[in-house]
Specification:
The chain is an alpha+beta fold and 511 residues long. It folds into four domains: 2-99 and 162-201, no CATH class; 105-158 and 207-247, Phosphorylase Kinase, domain 1 (2-Layer Sandwich); 249-439, no CATH class; 445-510, no CATH class. It has helices at 2-20, 23-29, 34-44, 60-68, 70-79, 83-94, 106-117, 121-124, 161-182, 191-205, 208-222, 256-261, 266-284, 317-332, 335-344, 354-369, 378-391, 398-417, 423-439, 441-458, 462-471, 481-510; strands at residues 125-134, 138-145, 151-157, 228-229, 242-246, 251-252, 286-288, 296-298, 304-306, 312-314. It has a four-stranded antiparallel sheet with strand order 1-2-3-5. The chain has a four-stranded mixed sheet with strand order 4-9-8-6. β2 and β3 form a beta hairpin. The longest helix is centred in the last third of the chain and has 30 residues, at 481-510. It is globular, with a radius of gyration of 27 Å.
């Protein structure tokens, strides 16, 4: 019975887009062909009166998405991180989406907590506030633990939100299939992949255990970072639908007047926010991907406090090294080295011309470096870089688009605190330190030790594999004996290397 529901939801969506004046904006963003445009108009116009009106003070696309409800708001927020799909203009418009919605009752929140945790709220908390923040998926309450007197933040999922989101996600899949069928040219934008990505993000946010785990990992990674704090998870009071964290005291990072009144140095805070984000992305490969002012506070001692860990970004170590070299190459204005790194990493096909690519990179970098320091943007540089690499055949990488989008947000936060911040000067020491640590001799030794650890773990299997290969010599084989002998000899050598590795590791571990 999902078909009729999905069809009706699609009609209601089109009617709302028409009523809000956003239909052309969306069709243009997705490069819709004539057949898709005709179908959209045919099904939406007669039902325009059924569409939601929305807030007339908002831009058309934002107005329509906000009126359509929580799943659409969240989808719009995800699309704001994908300018490769919807274009720069629509992505920029969607970034202002706020998912503040009317809260559900405190009694309903308490009932959810008691059902999930198997506790009585009044027995565990001496105080439990009305909602202090309400978003599309959950809302937050401030509470005080009865036994310790500690203040905590309690996040509770909206009742029935999983079922509501699943209905809309089903409709999104249906719409993506219709779009791909009616407009084959849209397949270049991979609508189904976009919906799968959205589905994965939402499923993660609908299980607060995953957000708790992300917050815990983030806290562990950053515990030694001066001037930065992540609230600790209260695991005994957290579950799939409830998450409890230490309360983060402080003023909102977007409230300059309050920051000044508290006597904090906004210039220093701006630089710290930018540097800690780069440290987390490069050093840890795990970063807060929703680092706007609403998710940051400045504590009474001047520390930057981050919270709301529903969207986190992850980059593997190899990619971090590649992009650190790329950023460093741009900082040094060594465009040939930046080009060579792209070719060495296999990001750009080998049949392209490296000199032509280096020249295209120069066209990206030089205008930016010619700007006034207060206008230089690393996020803009990455956006232009992705445009150039796409022209040279590089495939879009979702995790790097997320990094670029977050970089834009973080730069915006930093500039709101210090309008004259020089992004490159602040970023340079972080990138240089990472380059020194990850690409120099220390990194080579570290990589060699990791390789030896793998060899030592598989060492016991290698003699048997070599014996089996050698025992097959002389038997009829479809392949010549040479490669098998060579493989057997290689396995013997690997076995010897594994034994040596194990010996070295045992010495290093046990002294």
């Amino acid at each position: 019975m999902r078909g009729p529901h999905n069809t009706w939801r699609l009609i209601r969506t089109g009617a709302t887009l028409e009523r809000a004046g956003a239909m052309n904006v969306v069709l243009d963003a997705f490069e819709a062909g004539p057949m898709l445009r005709f179908a959209a108009r045919t099904f939406a116009l007669p039902f325009k009166w059924l569409g939601y009106r929305g807030d007339p003070s908002l831009p058309p696309a934002t107005r329509a998405i906000t009126a359509l409800g929580p799943a659409y708001i969240k989808f719009g927020q995800i699309l704001s991180t994908r300018p490769d799909v919807v274009g720069d203009e629509l992505a920029k418009e969607l970034r202002v989406l706020q998912d503040k919605l009317p809260p559900f009752s405190t009694d309903a929140a308490k009932a959810e907590i008691e059902r999930e945790l198997g506790i009585k709220v009044d027995e565990v908390f001496s105080a439990f506030s009305e909602p202090i923040a309400a978003a599309s998926i959950a809302q937050v309450h401030r509470a005080t633990l009865k036994d310790t007197g500690e203040d905590v933040a309690v996040k509770v999922l909206r009742p029935g939100i999983e079922r509501a989101f699943q209905r809309d996600i089903d409709a999104f899949y249906f719409a993506a299939n219709v779009i791909e069928f009616l407009s084959p040219s849209s397949r270049r934008l991979r609508p189904l992949d976009v919906i799968r990505h959205f589905d994965g993000v939402v499923q993660g946010e609908l299980d607060l255990r995953l957000e708790s785990a992300g917050a815990s990992e983030f806290a562990e990674n950053t515990k030694g970072d001066p001037g930065f704090t992540v609230p600790k998870v209260k695991w005994g009071l957290s579950s799939r639908r409830v998450m409890t964290l230490d309360w983060a005291e402080g003023v909102n990072a977007g409230d300059n007047a309050a920051i000044d009144a508290a006597g904090h140095d906004r210039v220093a805070i701006a630089a710290r926010i930018l540097q800690i984000f780069l440290q987390h992305a490069l050093r840890d490969g795990f970063f807060h991907a929703d680092m706007h002012q609403g998710n940051l506070k400045v504590a009474p001692n001047g520390d930057v406090v981050a919270f709301d860990f529903g969207i986190m970004g992850r980059i593997d170590e190899y990619t971090r090294r590649v992009y650190a070299e790329i950023l460093y190459g741009f900082i040094k204005r060594d465009y040939m080295r930046v080009a060579q790194v792209h070719f060495e990493a296999g990001y750009v096909p080998a049949d392209r011309d490296v000199d032509e690519f280096a020249n295209a990179l120069r066209a990206v970098g030089e205008p930016i470096f010619g700007m006034d320091a207060s206008r230089i943007s690393m996020g803009r540089l990455l956006a232009y870089l992705f445009e150039v690499t796409e022209r040279f055949g590089m495939q879009t990488r979702t995790e790097l688009i997320l990094l670029q989008r977050t970089m834009v947000v973080v730069e915006g936060v930093a500039r709101s605190l210090d309008p004259h911040i020089n992004i490159w000067e602040v970023a340079r020491p972080v990138v240089e330190a990472y380059i020194k640590d990850s690409i120099g001799p220390k990194a080579a030794i570290r990589d060699a030790i990791r390789t030896m650890q793998v060899l030592s773990r598989f060492g016991p299997k290698l003699p048997k594999l070599a014996e089996e290969l050698l025992s097959r010599q002389g038997k009829p084989e479809p392949e010549p004996e040479g490669p098998s002998l060579w493989l057997a000899a290689s396995l013997v050598l690997l076995g010897a290397a594994a034994a040596t590795a194990g010996f070295i590791l045992s010495i290093s571990l046990w002294g």
